[in-house]
Sequence to fold (105 residues):
Amino acid sequence: MPSSQIKLALAKVLKDEGYIGDYATASEGGRATLTLRLKYYQGRPVIDRLERVSRPGLRVYRAKDELPKILGGMGVAIISTSRGVMTDREARAAGHGGEVLCIVS
Fold:
């Protein structure tokens, strides 16, 4: 999956999980941009922690039974599976493991 498609998939998961308000793409001069509208609750950002797990030099893969649970289910790990990018809960329910992209809480 190309980098821009992964970014779009991450934005979709963050929106579906309620961490961001919305996202939009635009193309200017042949260059695509992705804009995220952050979400706030009582004056504080909804995203408290966003941590990248896999990196180009160190990929982190986990089986479905080894997927991390973030804050007892209050946060999410975003996983890249053979069926697309999804949360750790969705991956467990679908019986898929994959690459752990990031952790959000």
